[in-house]
Amino acid sequence: MSGPLLKLDQIGKQFGHVSVLEGISLAFQRGEIHALLGANGAGKSTLCKIISGLHPASSGTLTLGGKPYAPHSKREAEAAGIQIIQQELNLIPTLSVAENLFLNRLPQRLGIIRHSELFQGARRALDRFQLTEVSPSAIISSLGVGTQQLVEIASALDRPCDVLILDEPTAALSQAETSLLFDQLQRLKQAGKCIIYISHRLEEIAQIADRATVLRNGRLIATRELQQTSKDELIDLMSGTTSESQHAFQSYSTKQPLMQIRDLTDGRKLKPISFTVSAGERLGITGLIGAGRTRLLNLIFGAMRSHSGSIEFLHTKQTGPFAHPAEAVNAGLAMVTEDRKRNGLLLPQPVRSNISLSSLWRKFQRRGVVNRTSECTAAESTRSQLDIQCQSIEQPVQELSGGNQQKAVVGRWLQSSADLFLFDEPTRGIDIPARRRIYRLFEELAQAGKGLVIVSSDLEELFETCDRILVMSSGELVADFSREEWSEDLIMQACFSRQ
Prior knowledge:
Elements: E1 6-15, E2 18-28, E3 32-37, H1 44-51, E4 59-64, E5 67-69, H2 74-79, E6 82-85, H3 97-101, E7 108-109, E8 112-113, H4 115-128, H5 145-157, E9 163-167, H6 175-190, E10 194-198, H7 202-208, E11 211-216, E12 219-225, H8 231-239, E13 257-265, E14 273-278, E15 282-287, H9 293-301, E16 308-313, E17 318-320, H10 325-331, E18 333-336, H11 340-344, H12 351-356, H13 360-363, E19 365-366, E20 369-370, H14 372-386, H15 402-414, E21 420-424, H16 432-447, E22 451-455, H17 459-465, E23 468-473, E24 476-482, H18 488-495
Parallel strand pairs: 3-10, 3-11, 6-9, 9-10, 15-22, 15-23, 18-21, 21-22
Antiparallel strand pairs: 1-2, 1-4, 4-5, 7-8, 11-12, 13-14, 13-16, 16-17, 19-20, 23-24
Helix pairs in contact: 14-15
């Protein structure tokens, strides 16, 4: 069949009196991977929600396969052959992997679920995506965020689709899992499917996509063939300015130990782990999904109970492990969690409250009364420093884009007097200009003598920001690389060394 598979003509979208998309005309072809790029709030996710039936367009028309297309729901869009995997997980945490895989299409007879058929189908879907270690009977909330993301993608790929929309699909994936996903996408492309791919990782875009469309402030700026377009040009199109050149890394590590961890373990999945973080040091931790990176940070921060081992802050003589995060905060720790919606934010509360939350009673109150003026001043300063895109600091944080929500979480800990910061996937879902601001923040904290532990699945991020990189594999700390020693090959070998 000739012509584009999916065509958008003058698509617009308003929420109340606010226009978020204006006059978007765009064609998506069969057998292509088409990237959508832009800063947070550019309109990428809103456009994809219109295509997938989650939002109606305020103006304009769509055609699918040459026929008018106007879905009134996600189910209608799925019936037409369009599947979407959103940035935020859309799983039911209390159900099993199998039930989430086949939600809305559970095999049944006379209203009774055929569990044998359900688990057999789930096993096939998981194996097809090479998730051989995931049990169909496991409760989905018991899995890590990255594994949950793969399960949701596997569910979409198990259904018939002509257009697959992926919004930041690799944000919680390791390099190995990302390669696995890319193999699946290439097969779909060769089968004549269209993949719409949203990502802030330009290295991924260059590797996987054929064309890229840039949105800015709800408008279409340009569509480019990626083989003929440089990374700097894409950044310039997204920002509307000339891209900043990346400056050389400068270490601020004093080599004076700030935190020392000895034989810390949960007695189950983590083997005894020991390492030291120096004042001014940016220490990266990487590994495959399930390696134990997030579990380690939770142990350090007191969000999980440790079985044995010790934590010592050498400059204050504070010791752990901590029985509760409040103890860790009082000892001088701060933590930006991986799952911002479940563990990092009070979604109905305004940006102001989320930024001041961790320091409210220590910094913004006197005799039990909150000093609202001081709180607002600090929130406005943080909003400006991190460029949090919101109507005002009184806007509920649940109304912000995913990237701006993440910046609000980071901003909260800037108000604390912490000496050591734990960052778990700190730039997940954040656009490139904002990511640069976060990297500069890392540098400023290190220059001020703070210690940083940065868990990330993005090796390029760790290479750019860290003094050292630790590698975890199957719950064990297996390697410690300095900048002079590391390479992508050596780190990947270490990641797989205990698999």
